[in-house]
Amino acid sequence: MLPAAAVFYFPWEINSGVAREGESVRTFGRLTCYQPEESRATLSAQHASAQHQVAVQTMFVEPFDPVIGAQYTVLGEVENVEGVGLMVRARVLNCVDGVNLALLQKAINEQRSFFKERETKEAGRPSPADPT
Predict the structure, then answer these.
(1) Between 29 and which of 6, 45, 60, 68 could a Cys-Cys bridge form, CB atoms 3.0 to 4.6 Å apart?
(2) Three-state DSSP class for 114?
(3) According to its UniProt record, which protein family does this protein belong to (predicted)?
């Protein structure tokens, strides 16, 4: 059986507790720091007037050629690391420099509203085993 598909979270949602430990997530951000000796990278994103950072464990995607300042997307699992907080253990880390962030955020919101609408429709529909 395959694991559930990863949910796209905004970087400011990762550390705010919306994403839970063990959950598969997708997120994005600008690579601001890479520490190869610790297999750790930091992605940053601006939201409103605040700068948000996501710690990324890069052990499973190394070796990779980091481009500091470039946009990246990451797919991985959230884990709670002592002294760091929530960290994404990357399974995939792709450079997507040049991506239109406003369009990406709009697409994520559209996807969320689609899934929410689909869930409400399925919740209102009787199951096939239901005799009513």
Answers:
(1) 45
(2) helix
(3) Belongs to the TEN1 family.
What are 62's two structure tokens?
Answer: 């190394």
Cβ proximity of 42 and 53 under 8 Å: yes
Q: Which of 74, 72, 68, 64 is nearest to 97 (CA)?
A: 72
Q: What is the pLDDT of residues 88-130, one digit of tens each?
A: 999 999 999 888 888 888 998 898 899 888 888 877 776 666 5
CB 66, CB 93: distance < 8 Å: no
pTM of the full predicted structure? 0.80
CA distances from residue 69 to 88, 97, 98, 103, 118 in whole angstroms, order as listed: 19, 9, 11, 19, 37
- Find out whether 62 and 35 touch, Cβ atoms under 8 Å: no
* CA separation for the pair 2, 10 (Å, rounded): 24
What residues does 43 pair with on adjacent strands?
31, 54
CATH (residue range 7-123): 2.40.50.140
- Measured CA to CA, the distance from residue 63 to residue 83 in angstroms comes to 25
Q: Taking the domains of the chain in order of start, what are their residue ranges?
A: 7-123
